[in-house]
């Protein structure tokens, strides 16, 4: 769905250039004053109840998810005894079964609506976490991880596409830039990502099985809340057939280019669960500092996402925002890659890892809201769920292949910096894939 052309109104006869300039300056000042007044009221206070529910949904999803996931790689490697490449493959498989199947969840949300798809996803996530808690063989771990991923493939595109649609409606009604709503969505997710690992770290002192069951318990509460509060039908959301729309999507080169660039970002972000735990273990001999690094990332987003989004909205179009974010992420990999040959340990050994987390998080603040805000402008009418899911599916496939490759680098005799410099190079190359053309933020 492309933006309509906007033609400037004809200049009234007899109006001088100076008068026009004064009038335009006055209009801009009035608009700036109105925008400042809106900003002082705060975005959250002006959102409708549905948007508030969906944003809080993201918070709850991530509390349950991040209580379990950050500790999965260590559990697979030590308790179950998987090789490094297998751990990387399982993590990539989890991401692919989630992100890769988003297109299915998005199409189902377009056809049946948000509520049934979200409720079904919650039921599957509960089953997947409970299964993972008792899985002690490779096939069982893979089965539970696939179920966990597919659950998110149902509820996440349904929620994300509706948040994006509501953000466009909010923007068109004069509420402010759509990126402000999507930034709040990101903040809620990161608040959950901050609380979740802390809960998981506390429960890990008992047993990883307890961590998994606690994650399942969170989704039991989410299921009950959404059964009671989520509307049966959302006004303005027309249902379409599941079939159709895919051909136009595959011919949309700008959208596919956006998907690939976003996939490179997601591959980089996935290294929080693969490269970062390995680096923390090497530097300190334990995983204790991992929860604090995840907490640092989440606190940065909670504290700085909205100011960064406001700053970017006034200075950068969507393409430049994504390019700047990818550049920061590549720099984060470069920090650890550059320091890795020194073999620092202890607190000094954690400094490069902390630098990586900070730069990755700053890059995420620019990339994620911009990519989500771009999709409604590229999606076909009535197919926002399909396009939202497709972007995650393409990026999930990139993560599946890339994570297995990154995991294999950890098992080779290559220089210690290589597993960090390769993702840096991939992230830099992704900047060239971002669609050309200025798109408003």
From TrEMBL:
<dbReference type="InterPro" id="IPR020846">
    <property type="entry name" value="MFS_dom"/>
</dbReference>
<feature type="transmembrane region" description="Helical">
    <location>
        <begin position="417"/>
        <end position="439"/>
    </location>
</feature>
<feature type="transmembrane region" description="Helical">
    <location>
        <begin position="50"/>
        <end position="73"/>
    </location>
</feature>
<feature type="transmembrane region" description="Helical">
    <location>
        <begin position="288"/>
        <end position="309"/>
    </location>
</feature>
<dbReference type="Pfam" id="PF07690">
    <property type="entry name" value="MFS_1"/>
</dbReference>
<feature type="transmembrane region" description="Helical">
    <location>
        <begin position="255"/>
        <end position="276"/>
    </location>
</feature>
<keyword id="KW-0812">Transmembrane</keyword>
<feature type="transmembrane region" description="Helical">
    <location>
        <begin position="351"/>
        <end position="372"/>
    </location>
</feature>
<keyword id="KW-1133">Transmembrane helix</keyword>
<feature type="transmembrane region" description="Helical">
    <location>
        <begin position="321"/>
        <end position="339"/>
    </location>
</feature>
<feature type="transmembrane region" description="Helical">
    <location>
        <begin position="208"/>
        <end position="230"/>
    </location>
</feature>
<feature type="domain" description="Major facilitator superfamily (MFS) profile">
    <location>
        <begin position="50"/>
        <end position="441"/>
    </location>
</feature>
<keyword id="KW-0813">Transport</keyword>
<dbReference type="InterPro" id="IPR011701">
    <property type="entry name" value="MFS"/>
</dbReference>
<feature type="region of interest" description="Disordered">
    <location>
        <begin position="1"/>
        <end position="35"/>
    </location>
</feature>
<feature type="transmembrane region" description="Helical">
    <location>
        <begin position="141"/>
        <end position="159"/>
    </location>
</feature>
<feature type="transmembrane region" description="Helical">
    <location>
        <begin position="117"/>
        <end position="135"/>
    </location>
</feature>
<keyword id="KW-0472">Membrane</keyword>
<dbReference type="InterPro" id="IPR050171">
    <property type="entry name" value="MFS_Transporters"/>
</dbReference>
<protein>
    <submittedName>
        <fullName>MFS transporter</fullName>
    </submittedName>
</protein>
<feature type="compositionally biased region" description="Basic and acidic residues">
    <location>
        <begin position="17"/>
        <end position="31"/>
    </location>
</feature>
<dbReference type="InterPro" id="IPR036259">
    <property type="entry name" value="MFS_trans_sf"/>
</dbReference>
<feature type="transmembrane region" description="Helical">
    <location>
        <begin position="79"/>
        <end position="96"/>
    </location>
</feature>
<feature type="transmembrane region" description="Helical">
    <location>
        <begin position="384"/>
        <end position="405"/>
    </location>
</feature>
<keyword id="KW-1003">Cell membrane</keyword>
<feature type="transmembrane region" description="Helical">
    <location>
        <begin position="180"/>
        <end position="202"/>
    </location>
</feature>
